[in-house]
Design goal:
Structural class: alpha+beta
Shape: elongated
CATH superfamily of the largest domain: Histidine kinase-like ATPase, C-terminal domain
Number of helices: 21
Helix content: 40-55%
Oligomer: single chain
Largest sheet: 7 strands, mixed
CATH topology of the largest domain: Heat Shock Protein 90
Distance between the termini: 113 Å
Radius of gyration: 50 Å
Number of strands: 22
Length: 646
């Protein structure tokens, strides 16, 4: 076994200038040669005068010479000329284990940084210099990049609009200028406790976050808290940090954003939204109250005019017609104004359900039959051939749409007919309202669905109306997912076409009106509750000839009456005054023996879009809005009874 010293200092007999190849002739030659050639650093064997006796392959690659070219050169040939002049003629001492940094020169003249270790040894009786040379180009490049990156990073951090900080042992060991500005403490912030500057109410939360991050329990989490500035001002911030090693010990580096303006803006938005919602609630309540207050007296005006027209003959009939028409005109104007207000405020509620369009169209034709006959017009509904036409629509909104279109058709038609048709075309349910009226001029068609626009205007306008009906119609159709357009020729007539996505029928169709008429043979007992005496009298005048009718004014009286007598139908007003509403009364009735399946209708002046669905969802079997005619009231009752019988 050879010692390290034996390997590095072989015993050779030739003492002339020679290469390491010549000196390694002993048994350890292969090991020494392998170390020499496999080294990644350049290794030179030189005379003390700087003449190169031998070098390894790494040295040749480093400087760009072949081995033959390298041997015989002087060390002065491998350094810049100005440095070569400073080299001693004879090297008297080595680097003593220290590394020297030097700039060397390649064969092609390029300069590169190196790190050199030298050792003077005895080799074959001669003092030789062993030099280890390491190319430092990559290291210097990395160091330069690191310095540049650090400079850029520091510049970014120092100029950042976000507060940057490092916390160690709960103290701020680094803060950037923006952090000093946000907190208001300036340069004195560095070194302060990270907890003391937090708002007292948030200190426990922040302390908990810091501790959990240091212990590695949580990763980067963004969380809000408040700072308390030296002037007493509270500012809102959001911080996000991460655990890292700082000077060999755990710390947290984080970024902090001042969100005070954002918080204040959001608070203002919330307050503004709450004010807007409150105004919207007030507006909705006002509209509902306005509707209720106008509909209630109109119930008597239109209702009693309808009753009297059937009970008296002669000249008063013409006067009653004037009263009824004026009441209906006022009702139409009220409906239009209230509907438009709800649509524009986006407070209208649409409840889409699969409904039979033909059945709803039947009700509309029946509703307007007397008005059409009064002008000498025929009104009819064309039945679809062997197909049931269903669509997901809001019943009240759809009725409003048909009422607007049919009312207009009758208004603008002086002779001929008004025809409704319901059909299915592919995957669309289609409703048409056709008339033989005056038609619409081409120039006005583009304004047809705009609010307050009428083809005939000014003091000489031929037709009455608010100009709101069609714009409301278009909005309601679109809210239900449908579309509407018109085909019209001046002097020939108009056809309004509505299309909805078709729905699949649910069960077999039931003629509820026919079923109701069949069921209500003989004297049906009806109980009605309303806090207005004129409405109670109207119920008796309208229904008394066909049914046994009792009326009461309060919820208490209704419960007492229902307890004494079993009624077949109950009509309930919603606004009864006091602390009990019609909805409350419905719940009480359903709990009474014999009334779980009794037909109970809401008969109310609450008639804004969405009201009908709201009361039906509350459990009422049917709904009729005030004002109403005898025909509308009896039809509504018969349909509900028919549906209960089915």
């Amino acid at each position: 076994m050879h010692s390290v010293d034996e390997v590095l200092h072989p015993d050779v007999s030739d003492t002339s200038e020679h290469s390491l190849h010549d000196a390694t002739t002993g048994p350890h030659a292969r090991l020494l040669q392998a170390i020499f050639e496999m080294s990644l650093d350049g290794i030179f064997i030189e005379t003390l005068e700087g003449k190169i006796l031998d070098c390894n392959e790494a040295a040749c690659r480093m400087f760009g010479y072949t081995h033959e070219e390298m041997v015989g050169l002087r060390i002065h040939d491998l350094v810049p000329e100005d440095f070569a002049k400073e080299l001693p003629d004879v090297i008297e001492e080595d680097t003593d284990g220290k590394a020297l940094e030097r700039v060397n020169r390649r064969k092609d003249g390029t300069l590169f940084p190196t790190e050199i270790h030298t050792k003077i040894i005895d080799l074959d009786g001669e003092r030789r210099l062993i030099a280890y040379v390491r190319d430092m180009s990559e290291k210097k490049r990395v160091e330069a990049y690191a310095v540049e990156a650090e400079s850029k990073f520091r510049s970014i951090v120092e100029q950042s609009l976000v507060g940057i900080y490092i916390i160690q042992d709960n103290r701020l060991v680094y803060v950037n200028p923006r952090m000093e500005e946000i907190t208001g403490y300036g340069p004195s912030l560095k070194g302060m406790s990270a907890i003391d500057i937090i708002h007292p109410d948030d200190r426990d939360t922040v302390r908990n976050h810091i501790q959990k991050r240091i212990e590695g329990e949580i990763d980067q989490v963004r969380y809000p808290f408040r700072f308390l500035r030296p002037d007493g001002q509270t500012i809102y911030v959001e911080a996000q940090g991460m655990r890292f090693e700082y000077e060999g010990r755990p710390a947290i580096m984080g970024a902090l954003l001042d969100v005070t303006d954002k918080v204040e803006y959001e608070r203002e938005l919330i307050e503004a939204r709450e004010r807007a919602e409150e105004m919207n609630r007030l507006k909705t309540n006002f509209l509902a109250n306005m509707s209720h207050e106008i509909r209630t007296p109109l119930t008597s005006i239109i209702g009693y005019a309808d009753v009297l027209s059937e009970e008296i003959e002669g000249t008063p009939q013409e006067l009653l017609a004037f009263i009824r028409q004026s009441g209906e005109r006022l009702m139409e104007t009220l409906n239009s104004v209230l509907d438009l207000a709800q649509i524009e405020s986006k407070s209208i509620h649409i409840d889409l359900r699969p409904l039979d369009l033909y059945e709803l169209a039947q009700n509309t034709v029946q509703l307007f039959s007397r008005q059409a006959e009064g002008k000498g017009l025929s009104i009819r509904l064309e039945q679809p051939a062997d197909v049931r036409v269903m669509a997901c629509i809001d019943q009240a909104a759809f009725n409003r749409v048909l009422n607007n279109l049919v009312s207009n058709a009758i208004k603008f038609t002086h002779e001929g007919e008004v025809v409704l048709s319901v059909d299915k075309e592919g995957d669309r349910a289609v409703v048409r309202v056709r008339d033989t009226g005056i038609g619409i001029g081409e120039a006005f068609k583009e304004h047809l669905f705009h609010a307050f626009r009428q083809e005939s205007t000014g003091q000489s306008r031929e037709y009455e109306g608010s100009g709101l009906g069609l714009v409301i119609t278009r909005h309601l159709v679109e809210l239900m997912g449908g579309e509407i357009h018109v085909e019209s020729t001046r002097g020939v007539g108009s056809t309004f076409i509505i299309r909805f996505p078709a729905a699949e029928p649910e069960g077999e169709p039931v003629d509820r009106l026919a079923a109701g008429l069949k069921t209500m043979q003989g004297k049906y007992r009806i109980l009605a509750v309303d806090d207005h005496d004129h409405t109670r009298t109207l119920f008796k005048r309208m229904l008394g000839k066909s049914y046994e009718v009792d009326t009461v004014a309060t919820a208490t009286e209704l419960i007492e009456a229902a307890g004494r007598t079993q009624y077949d139908v109950v009509l309930v007003d919603i606004n009864l005054g006091g602390n009990t509403s019609g909805v409350d009364l419905l719940g009480a009735l359903r709990k009474m023996p014999g009334y779980r399946k009794t037909a109970i209708l809401a008969c109310t002046a609450y008639a804004l879009p969405g009201d009908q669905e709201r009361f039906l969802s509350a459990g009422f079997d049917g709904y009729i809005s005030k004002p109403f005619t005898r025909q509308q009231l009896t039809t509504a009752i018969q349909q509900v009874v028919g549906s209960k019988a089915g």
